[in-house]
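Please, structure for the following, as tokens.
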Amino acid sequence: EPTDEVPTPAEAKATLRDAPPPLAALHAQGGRLLPGGKAAVTRRLAALRGHPVVVNAWATWCGPCKEEFPVLQRAAVRYGTSVAFLGVNTRDNADEARAWLRRHWTAYPSYADPDGRATRALGVTVGLPTTVFYGRDGEVAYIHQGPYRDDADLARDLQRYLGAVPAS
């Protein structure tokens, strides 16, 4: 039975307080829509090398993206001391995306990708949502097309492709 309950920002901050500096920097930008498109996403991924990374491409006009949001919100807190999470908000209205993020806080930022170039560079060619898993080496380990419907499915892929273990 899926739940929509997600950690509050205060609960997330308490759980994530021991994150290493590159991940803590992401958490400090939680819930924000950052500018810079493809160049900014590429720089961030380079800065996160050495850590597994999960990048979720989403948009407010995408119903399945909204449905999977709570799964990502929970996973980003459960795994956020060892795995970096990033959003890429694709071909969306920035004001609508910011409003959505205000109502549905995440422990990680999203990058605005108004022209879809960052999303294509990630290897997203079909549709949204798509989640891209990067190993510690910065290479793509797995691309999941479509929404994660429950926590167990995402946890299985985090463990299978990134060797991730949840924070206690």
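The mean pLDDT is 94. Residues 63-78 form the longest helix (16 residues).
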